[in-house]
């Protein structure tokens, strides 16, 4: 296994650690794990969880920028589109939120999280 493969595995482990620590409300540990993961592997999944982390800190506008940057790379990811819609709801931008939820469902009609938000707020 070469260095790149090792870095990827370690980064993935750190992202999983972040998820566990966020569930335990250990946000400092979660943040540190994400920071280290981003150093090792600058990938979309790690950025996604970093955006979620920003939301948990109520850094809504910073999270919006993070998810917007992700959408520049992958414009049709239903998970990212849905989170961006959730952020728009939090900012009181209901029309924009519904557009994100609709785009998520257009990308994956079976993505129930986007459908649920659209049903509640559409």
Kindly list the characteristics that best describe this protein.
2 domains, 7 helices, mainly alpha, 122 residues, Serine Threonine Protein Phosphatase 5, Tetratricopeptide repeat
Structural summary, described in words:
The chain is mainly α and 122 residues long. It folds into 2 domains: 1-57; 60-122, Serine Threonine Protein Phosphatase 5, Tetratricopeptide repeat (Alpha Horseshoe), CATH 1.25.40.10. Helices cover 81% and strands 0% of the residues. Helix 4 packs antiparallel against helix 5. The mean pLDDT is 88.
Strand content: under 5%
Q: Radius of gyration over alpha carbons?
A: 15 Å
Reported for the largest beta sheet, the result is: none
Structural class: mainly alpha
Mean pLDDT across residues = 88
Q: What's the CATH class of the largest domain, please?
A: Mainly Alpha
Q: Quote the distance from N terminus to C terminus.
A: 49 Å
Number of strands: 0
Spans of 5+ residues with little confidence (pLDDT < 50)? none
Please state the second-level CATH architecture of the largest domain.
Alpha Horseshoe
